[in-house]
Automatic annotation (TrEMBL):
It comes from Seonamhaeicola aphaedonensis. Belongs to the sigma-70 factor family. ECF subfamily. The keyword Glycosyltransferase does not apply. This is RNA polymerase sigma-70 factor (ECF subfamily). Residues 114-162 form the RNA polymerase sigma factor 70 region 4 type domain.
Length: 180
């Protein structure tokens, strides 16, 4: 069955087609959920919520543009919805933002370690970091998505990078001490 036919069958609430769609895209969408969630269990919950939203809104997909891109946007928005109403964002003055670059030697760290330290970031920093660095959204887009101002987005990104840089430095130090 083609993807277009699968989508059309999902629009008819065909549970078999919904199961096929889930099998086809769940691993990709789960990786998105994992990036934005605090932990694995929350990512699983977010994936289920995302698919409920996808199946409820699939009628709105008009076969214009990428279906996978549409799924990704819905998944990110579903996860972000959990945080929108929480007071996790600080209001800051844009003039006080100092950007930090994080240098990562890919051979020194596993993907699991990097994912773990990103997941451990406070919500406001993790969300902005993922949206900006991993998914390429602009600070204006992030501000709109999270109902914050661009200065808050920039400062949260800078703070996320500072925390990650410190965590990487601490990890390197602990590794070198263990090798003594």
């Amino acid at each position: 069955m083609s993807l277009n036919q699968l989508i059309e069958n999902c629009k008819l609430n065909d549970t078999k087609a919904q199961g096929e769609l889930y099998k086809l895209f769940s691993s990709k969408l789960f990786s998105i959920c994992l990036k934005y969630s605090r932990n694995y269990a929350e990512a699983e919950d977010n994936l289920q919520d995302a698919f409920l939203t996808i199946f409820n809104k699939i009628e709105q997909f008009k076969h214009k543009g990428s279906f996978e891109g549409w799924l990704k946007r819905i998944t990110i928005n579903t996860v972000l919805q959990r945080y929108r109403n929480e007071k996790v964002f600080d209001i800051v003055n844009e003039k006080n933002v100092e950007d930090t670059q994080v240098e990562v030697d890919e051979d020194s760290f596993s993907i699991d370690f990097l994912l773990k330290i990103i997941q451990e970031l406070p919500d406001r920093y993790r969300l902005v970091f993922n949206l900006y660095v991993l998914d390429g959204y602009s600070h204006k887009d992030i501000a709109d998505m999270l109902n914050i101002n661009t200065g808050t987005s920039k400062s949260n990104l800078a703070r996320a990078r500072q925390i990650l840089k410190q965590n990487i430095k601490d990890y390197k130090l602990s590794q070198s001490l263990q090798s003594l």
